[in-house]
Amino acid sequence: QVQLVESGGGLVQPGGSLRLSCVASGSIFMIHAMGWYRQAPGKQRELVATITSGGYINYADSVKGRSTISRDTKNTVDLQMNGLQPEDTAVYYCNARMTVLTTLKDDDYWGQGTQVTVSS
């Protein structure tokens, strides 16, 4: 079994900052990429940022310039978000494209999400 566990969400005022963290654990053979997605009320899940094992980074236009994704360790991914606005309110999900030992097939895995609420 593999797990992705998110942390760092919470309530923040407009203009504030949060740092989201995700840790992958379990029978992992290889992690190809990790990233963050979010789903706001009434909307579909959308990409926030991704980073590959080779260091290629992709940001959504809505967060470019105020967000930073990083992988400080092999099995972790962090998302620093600054200048948060109410439209950033969503459940943020950690994603990993991984090859696991039980199947030796690459698939997308998801955490259970962490709530980010931006409100005054």
Descriptive key words:
120 residues; seven-stranded mixed sheet; four-stranded antiparallel sheet; 11 strands; 0% helix; elongated; mainly beta
Please tell me how large the radius of gyration is.
Answer: 14 Å
The number of distinct β-strands equals 11
Note the overall shape: elongated
Average pLDDT rating: 97
What's the helix count? 0
Please tell me about this protein's structure:
This protein has 120 residues and is mainly beta. 0% of the residues lie in helices and 59% in strands. It contains no helices and 11 strands. Strands 2, 4, 5, 6, 9, 10 and 11 form a 7-stranded mixed β-sheet that branches. The chain has a 4-stranded antiparallel β-sheet with strand order 1-3-8-7, with no helix packed on it. A hairpin with a 5-residue loop joins strand 7 (67-70) and strand 8 (76-81).
Write the topology of this structure.
Layout: E1 2-7, E2 10-12, E3 18-26, E4 28-39, E5 46-52, E6 57-59, E7 67-70, E8 76-81, E9 90-100, E10 106-110, E11 114-118
How would you summarize what this structure contains?
With 120 residues, this protein is an all-beta fold.
